[in-house]
Design a protein that fits this description.
- The complex is a heterodimer of chains A (about 300) and B (about 675).
- Chain A is mainly alpha-helical and about 300 residues long.
- Chain A is built from 12 helices and 2 strands.
- Chain A has a domain of about 210 residues.
- Chain A is about 75% helix and about 5% strand.
- A two-stranded antiparallel sheet of chain A has the order 1-2.
- In chain A, α2 packs parallel to α5 and α10 crosses α12.
- The longest helix of chain A is centred in the N-terminal third of the chain and has 40 residues.
- Chain B is of the alpha/beta class.
- Chain B is elongated and about 95 Å long.
- Chain B has 2 domains: about 260 residues, ABC transporter involved in vitamin B12 uptake, BtuC (Orthogonal Bundle), CATH 1.10.3470; about 260 residues, LigB-like (Protocatechuate 4,5-dioxygenase, Chain B), CATH 3.40.830.10.
- In chain B, a hairpin with a 2-residue loop joins β11 and β12.
- Classes of the chains: A mainly alpha (about 300), B alpha/beta (about 675).
- Chains A and B meet through α4, α5, α10 and α12 of A and α6, α7, α13, α15 and α20 of B.
């Protein structure tokens, strides 16, 4: 190969990594917005987040086996169901094991911090085994004709159409969520309750309800993300942990309490993974991602885009 | 005091006998069970193994507040160490298990190392530079001598070394709560992906461990590992780190504030817990023969230990053992019944935290505390002996809930520790009288405020249901140790905590095992509450609270306790004038340090005796200032708040010196309205 050819392919590799990484970043952001939201508002580390993504994916796939409509329409049903699950979960379970609730019951501060994490961990185990009992361990996916479509930018450079669409949805959703949190009454109540639950409840905000709405929104977004998982790949009951690690990686890079950070975190993780995959083989993708997250944790404990 | 001591000795002896019997049964079990009972022998081994894993996790989460979801990393590392040594070098498996523990300890040390270095980043970068130089030298060496590559491949070698460097840089133990939890999980996932790629460990297909161990052999190894790990945890809790550990567990911020080196304790425990988990894991894989990376590094292991420790009781010594029994029962038997063992486990974890956050052992403790405090109800009449006593209790004590007694007693341990010393004799006798009065008042609860339990942050209240042990006073240690045995009215304490909000005081429960216990409360409880065993509500003395706040605190606590339908006795623990002798004195020559102090003390006591509430309020500030009153006399503020206007005069049961300071036992006359 001549020097020019070499240079050309290097440039293509880098351009591909930047483009693909960025668009994967949109997908990663979708996987993690719900996690960032529940942490930002309730300080809740939802270890069952990955499993709820998979629940969203299964819901979408199951509905599509019953009715034959364009796949995207299942979201009309999936999103409200996921919202309902989230609302009920927070209202009837997680509100009772929050830090404040545990302190009221005379448990130590440390246990108070642990209780919600332990409960969601227990939920994670339960959900994955429930999915196993319901759907067996066969790999499932959402059949669609977009999965292999690509947008060709040049002879040697193209991006997946689906990933591009996901990116657009993620950006739109993030903007929408920001507007919702800033401009609407409920959004402001959510922010107030997250800043100071005691005072906002004195001001007449029903924090129990508001937190439940926040987890509802978190899970509704996870429902959309789960649908995206099903559109791009096959999934199984025990895939939750794999996705929660991606989501956590994104949130750690972006900053745990920053919803915007999820997009940038997703993009950075995406680019690093694609670069590692290009230069060191496919298995380096995963380990490269982990190393990036550990590196960020070493130097920027609050994440790169934290408020 | 003596009764209490005998009780605790008897209790301890009973416990020892039960433990010995259990040990004998377990030692003989495989022989009794024989061939037919092999299944149960192996099942018990599983219990030992999971109890040991529980100990490892409980050390981190239960005692250090380190919520780890990465325990599986030690399990995988240990299992593969055994497998590699066994397969490539034909090392006997039991020796391999010990090596596995060593590898896990090294790995934990690598993770914990960045925290113990105080000087921070500079040293970290130096370490990083050294690591990279060593790596480059190693790569060059391999270029000339390919045999030096023990990793079996350039890619995996570089990944392993790079990952090791990254892990070495990560200040894992500085991460808090959720960050720590997620980081441990990520580390385990990263190590898993290395092992899944690695040809040496079967490139994802796993390995087999070939040995000729018998079920009985594995059983005894399991028992040995469990006993050893229990002993290590027990030893740790009873060492000088024990109190520090529980303090770190309950409130890291407060622990740091009182000068505990939280980081050192955390890294020590972190490194100790790794080999404990590794020993159990080694045994597990010797028993199950095959090991694969996805199985050995599975997050499931964390789910198991979470259930075991939460079910048994987090932060207790016996919790993991009890939890492991529950775990094996659910996992083996329920799974057999309907195939949903792990689903049950997950749901049970959720329900346990919701309904029984203290676990089975917590429940047992609460039930025992109840069982001890209940017989007291039957004893309504009291036996009185001395004539002085009769005078003291001649005040009318009405039935039903309300304030029934109020006492001010000194918190100095000297009369307790040397009750025969003539200069302290008066106080000892006065305590006896006060005790009889208290017994006659038949309280359901004793509200205690001791100036010696000094709090800096917030207003802590003791909520541990049963506290017993031995305490040595910081100042008077040469006079001996104090045994104590308190029952706490948890419900009452929690009500007081809730009540604090109403008076603008930030309160919180403390539930430490044997900490903080102050000398004053021990002295008062020892003299006044022996045999009576009324439960206590103990309030701390925040050093920043002023007189008025403390008065409100006393008022609130009394109100809350009465609201619960209790007959309430209130005790303010503290002395009068505060100046003590700064030199060694002969206790027999003890006296109030100066005549001025003596005069001030007597004036205050006279005002109390006369029930002159206005006079006391006017004189108080002068008294506090000129007599350097003990704890700014806030123990009396507590009493004043509690009694309000429901008192008229007092009986001075005793007055005397305590190493120069003034101390008095005062019984207030309660007139309930």
């Amino acid at each position: 190969m001549t020097f020019e050819e070499n240079l050309y392919w290097t440039m293509i590799d880098i351009a591909n990594a930047l483009l693909t990484g960025t668009f994967i970043g949109g997908y990663y952001a979708m996987l993690s917005i719900g996690l960032a939201l529940s942490f930002g508002v309730m300080k809740l580390v939802n270890l069952a987040h990955g499993d709820f993504l998979i629940v969203g994916a299964y819901l979408s796939a199951m509905i599509l086996t019953v009715v034959s409509v364009p796949p995207v329409l299942v979201l009309i049903i999936v999103v409200p169901i996921m919202f309902g699950i989230g609302y009920a979960l927070q209202r009837f379970l997680l509100n009772h094991v929050s830090v404040q609730a545990m302190e009221r019951r005379g448990m130590s501060a440390n246990f108070g911090l642990m209780a919600p994490i332990l409960v969601t961990f227990g939920l994670s185990i339960s959900i994955s085994h429930l999915l196993l009992a319901l759907f067996a361990s066969d790999a499932v996916s959402i059949k669609n004709n977009l999965a292999f479509s690509a947008i060709r930018l040049s002879q040697d450079l193209s991006i997946s159409l689906l990933r591009f669409l996901f990116f657009v949805v993620a950006v739109a959703l993030l903007i929408g969520l920001q507007i919702f949190l800033r401009r609407t009454v409920t959004g402001r109540a959510i922010r107030a309750a997250s800043d100071n639950p005691t005072f906002s409840s004195l001001m007449g905000i029903k924090t129990d309800h508001i937190f439940a709405v926040a987890l509802g929104i978190s899970l509704a977004i996870s429902g959309v993300a789960g649908f995206m998982i099903g559109m791009t790949r096959t999934f199984q009951p025990f895939d939750g942990p794999q996705f929660i690690l991606i989501a956590f990686g994104v949130v750690i890079i972006g900053g745990m309490n920053s919803i915007k950070g999820s997009l940038f975190g997703g993009i950075i993780l995406g680019i690093v993974q694609v670069l590692a995959g290009t230069y060191f083989g496919p298995s380096a993708q995963l380990i490269g991602g982990y190393m990036l997250v550990l590196f960020v944790l070493s130097f920027w404990r609050e994440g790169l885009f934290s408020k | 005091m003596i009764g209490n001591f005998l009780n605790s000795v008897a209790e301890r002896r009973n416990a020892t006998i039960i433990l010995l019997l259990a040990l004998i049964v377990l030692l003989l079990f495989p022989w009794v069970a024989g061939e037919g009972g092999r299944y149960y022998t192996s099942l018990l081994m599983t219990v030992f193994l999971f109890a040991t894993l529980g100990h490892a996790w409980n050390l981190l989460a239960g005692f250090c507040g380190l919520l780890s979801f990465g325990l599986q990393v030690y399990i995988g590392l240990s299992g593969f160490t055994v497998a590699i040594l066994n397969y490539y070098f034909q090392v006997p498996v039991w020796f391999g298990v010990i090596c596995g523990a060593g590898v896990a300890a090294l790995f934990a040390w690598l993770l914990a190392a960045p925290i113990s270095d105080q000087s921070g980043r500079k040293q970290m970068f130096a370490g990083l530079a050294i690591a990279i130089v060593l790596w480059v030298i190693y790569e060059i060496w391999i270029a000339f001598v390919p045999g030096a590559d023990i990793f079996g491949g350039a890619y995996i070698r570089r990944v392993i070394i790079l990952l090791t460097i990254f892990l070495g840089m990560l200040p894992l133990l500085k991460l808090q709560g959720a960050y720590f939890a997620v980081a441990t999980w990520l580390i385990a996932a990263a190590v898993t992906s290395v092992f899944s790629e690695w040809r040496v460990t079967g490139a994802g297909g796993g390995m087999t461990i070939v040995s000729d161990t018998t079920t009985i052999e594995r059983y005894y190894v399991g028992l040995l590992i469990l006993i050893a790990s229990t002993a290590v945890v027990w030893k740790l809790l009873n060492s000088r780190y024990g109190d520090a550990l529980t303090a770190v567990r309950d409130d890291e911020e407060a622990a740091t504030a009182i000068g505990i080196d939280v980081r050192r304790i955390k890294s020590m425990v972190f490194v100790i817990s790794a080999p404990i988990a590794a020993l159990a894991a080694g045994l597990f894989y010797v028993d199950s023969v095959t090991i694969t990376p996805p199985d050995a590094f599975h997050i499931r292991w964390s789910a198991y230990v979470v259930f075991i420790v939460v079910a048994g009781g987090m932060g207790t010594l016996s919790g993991p053992i009890v939890g492991a029994i529950a775990f094996v029962i659910i996992q083996r038997f329920l799974a057999g019944l309907w195939g949903g063992g792990e689903l049950t486990l997950g749901l049970a974890s959720v329900l346990l935290i919701l309904l029984l956050p203290r676990g089975i052992m917590g429940l047992v403790q609460e039930l025992r505390a109840k069982a001890v405090s209940e017989p007291r109800v039957a004893r309504k009449t009291s036996l009185l002996s001395s004539s002085k006593t009769k005078v003291a209790i001649s005040t009318m004590i009405p039935d039903g809930p309300g304030l029934v007694a109020a006492l001010m007693v000194p918190g100095s341990p000297l009369p307790t520790l040397q009750s025969t010393n003539p200069t302290w004799r008066d106080i000892v006798d006065a305590f006896g009288t006060a005790r009889a009065a208290l017994e006659a008042a038949n309280p359901d609860v004793i509200l205690v405020y001791s100036g010696q339990w000094m709090a800096v942050l917030d207003q802590p209240w003791q909520t541990s249901p049963h506290l017993h042990g031995t305490h040595v006073d910081e100042n008077w240690h040469e006079f001996g140790a104090l045994d104590y045995d308190f029952r706490i009215d948890r419900e009452g304490a929690l009500a007081c905590i809730a009540g604090c909000e109403g008076i603008g005081v930030r309160a919180k429960p403390v539930d430490y095992d044997g900490f903080p216990i102050d000398t004053g409360t021990i002295v008062a409880n020892g003299f006044l509450n022996q045999g009576l065993q009324a439960p206590l509500i103990i309030a701390s003395a925040n050093i920043y609270h002023d007189y008025e706040t403390t008065r409100k605190l006393g008022e609130m606590a009394t109100r809350e306790a009465i609201k619960l339908g209790r007959r309430v006795a209130v005790i303010g623990i503290g002395g009068l004038s505060g100046s003590i002798f700064r030199q060694d004195i002969d206790p027999e020559n003890d006296r109030i340090k100066s005549p001025e102090d003596d005069a001030l003390n007597r004036k205050m006591l006279d005002l109390m005796k006369a029930g002159d509430r206005n006079g006391i309020d006017q004189f108080r500030e002068t008294f506090v200032k000129n007599a350097r009153a003990d704890n700014n006399f806030k123990h009396f503020a507590w009493l004043q708040g509690a009694m309000g206007s429901e008192w008229s005069g007092a009986e001075i049961l005793g007055y005397g010196p305590a190493w120069g300071a003034g101390s008095a036992v005062v019984q207030f006359h309660i007139n309930r309205k």
